[in-house]
């Protein structure tokens, strides 16, 4: 009987571990989706759920899904439109693109104050002309959690 | 006891009422805004003001400047001040309570609409609960049609009823919230905006009026559950409007010689609102351009009022602005175009070899892009003689139907008259006397194809647009050389588009010897293909000019010849207008129909051309009596070359207020980047084998001027002139003793290293089945450049 219980526990733990591992690898819909058209113009849109608020001073991680129709192998660049808001840091120094159809990169934003902050970020490929008509930018409101 | 009486006139009453209402408004604003954090408030406001400007309905310039200053002030007093300004543009003030209950109050905007036109207003949303669900604010009757806002194309829509008459009668207004998107579940076909969660935000509502006069309709605030589902009515209110009548205004558009023609017209009212509004346009009017293209004898609908009309017709014409008043006794606008230069007087005819009718900024629905009737209208309105409309991967299967293998100059008819009727019944196409002077040729850009990683190809004068044995794009070769061989086999021309892309280095020197990253879609494989004799041209003037010219110079220093032509890549690199980058080809006669197009393309390939932004022109260019494209200048030995040019350029009389910012914001070539300081002069440089060996300056006032240079040469060389970065001649090749040009060992080594770099970056995208042939072709290029390097006399 004892062996049966231990065996059942083992199976349960293994199953939980498997489920956890699966959850980790199941691709979540990236909150930011970039499309590089065949002419290398970079357009961007909000696609998935924004990450939950993190403690102030901690970087929030945004997955960026890149659909590359232009075989572009340069580096993507991002910056705030109209200058960096006070107390905000944008970290986006991704590896150059591989030119393949779909890739994921990560963008990190750190807020130091818990107030809601409206962010507009523009994307482009290095040394490239941005997309036209405002399609190169995405905006959202973000806040962080005051821990003290 | 005295009775106390107070005499209150109507005027006093209104003043007191206004003061009371104002005080109420201010108190309400103050209570709502005192807790507002300025950053998200102003970030949202600035975005909305940008959107209004993009829709052709900007707020007054003074208000925009004041709000920009308040945004920098960044405190609650600034928010209060901005609220007062924005109220003047606000149709309704919506409030959402914490429980989702909504209220509607009137904003301070003048509620004026336009018959058969669109107007934009702000909607203020107070959201103290920080809700992030979706919301819609809409008129009840919803008008005679509904729009797909992301395509800017209307589709008729009406409920299935037996007796539509009374319903149609009520449908005088149509509304939509700007940037609304489908609400889940998406099959509901209901759109709404998503709230950001900040306490106060602004959005844009667009209103169309079918009728003139005073009208009222019920507006309803709908809110939607956060996780989708059906909306509930959170509040409603009747709103009345004054709808100004519109008049059919006749347009008389005359060229400098008095003949009727098509021109670019940007029509704005005193508030800088654009007509017809960009928020709702149907081809041939495009939403991404403030201007429209109208021909002599055509019309536009305008309400009574004062307008500024800016007329242009490409860079060879002066930009004219005049103020006109439209009322019962003034129902016509006369446009008399003025040229500052007519290159055709010297035999030069313009062309833009890279324009698109589908993809990038174009409509994607109901058609994929626009039809030749719309493209020819734009070409005529920009004074372009030749327009090469290139079909490419997006919209390939739709647009390729327009390929005929012939030059065309169709009437500028409406491609979908029923859509025009639905949107604005005024436009009736009218032919003009100059219509035959612009030609379109449908051809191909290899973009979005398997080989596009190696650089995009512009293919001109094709007889067949499908690569042999292919049925779909994915069947095409995965590198460019086989395509160029096929192009040559049918007597067509092939070159590399937007040639500066992927070629930018840190150095801004010309020439420079840094190896480009080759990570884009420009010249890249051209460096290999030119050694196989299969590159007819590089196509530029629309990207980094140093990156464009550097590779061209190095290849020509190796004795490899190709033209540099001007292009716009409209509307991908720029949606401003076609013909921003141009080639001017010298011909004996104006090119007309197929034969004219043949002559123009042949002249381009032979080098009887200069390219640029059309703001400067090399009307004559001779090296010891030989013009470019007339064959080599054969010499028996070294000597002095005499260079003569007739050159003209025209800067605007005053430089832009912030010249540095203006230059920084420019993509591609522009004469303003050549202006010397704040003077009205520009330099013209003599280029020998890629090096500027002499320079003269001249006044860019539009007058042609003769400039002479002399330069010694001791070996076979190429000689050209440039006004950097505005125009560039094709070279004259001076050949001494029959020896080929071997002008620079460093150039040959640069090209040789580039071959390896291109292989390193691009070969992973070449199919395994095609790699052996590619290896052989790249090895051939390496060998050619190594041999040339050994043949060069100088480093």
Beta-strand content bin of chain B: 25-35%
Low-confidence stretches of chain B: 1-26, 143-159
Note the gap between the termini of chain B. Answer: 114 Å
* Second CATH tier, the architecture of chain A: Sandwich
Low-confidence stretches of chain A: 3-27
Describe the SSE topology.
The complex is a heterodimer of chains A (148) and B (795).
Chain A: H1 2-25, E1 32-36, E2 42-46, E3 59-68, E4 76-80, E5 88-91, E6 102-111, E7 117-125, E8 137-142
Parallel strand pairs in A: 1-3
Antiparallel strand pairs in A: 1-2, 3-6, 4-7, 5-6, 7-8
Chain B: H1 10-33, H2 38-54, H3 61-73, H4 76-87, E1 90-96, E2 102-106, E3 112-114, E4 117-126, E5 134-139, E6 145-148, E7 153-156, H5 165-170, E8 173-177, E9 181-182, E10 191-194, E11 200-209, E12 213-224, E13 232-244, E14 246-254, E15 262-269, E16 274-275, E17 292-295, E18 299-303, E19 305-312, E20 320-326, E21 332-336, E22 348-355, H6 372-381, E23 386-391, H7 396-399, E24 407-408, H8 417-423, E25 439-446, E26 457-460, H9 481-489, E27 493-496, H10 526-529, E28 537-540, H11 545-557, E29 563-566, E30 582-586, H12 593-606, E31 609-612, E32 616-623, E33 626-627, E34 633-635, E35 639-649, H13 659-664, E36 681-688, E37 691-699, E38 705-713, E39 717-723, E40 727-729, E41 732-736, H14 745-762, H15 771-791
Parallel strand pairs in B: 1-4, 3-13, 14-21, 22-23, 23-25, 27-28, 28-29, 34-41
Antiparallel strand pairs in B: 1-2, 4-11, 5-10, 5-12, 6-7, 8-11, 9-10, 12-13, 14-18, 15-16, 15-17, 15-19, 19-20, 22-30, 24-25, 25-26, 26-27, 30-31, 31-40, 32-33, 32-35, 35-38, 36-37, 36-39, 39-40, 39-41
Helix pairs in contact in B: 1-4, 2-3, 3-4, 11-14, 14-15
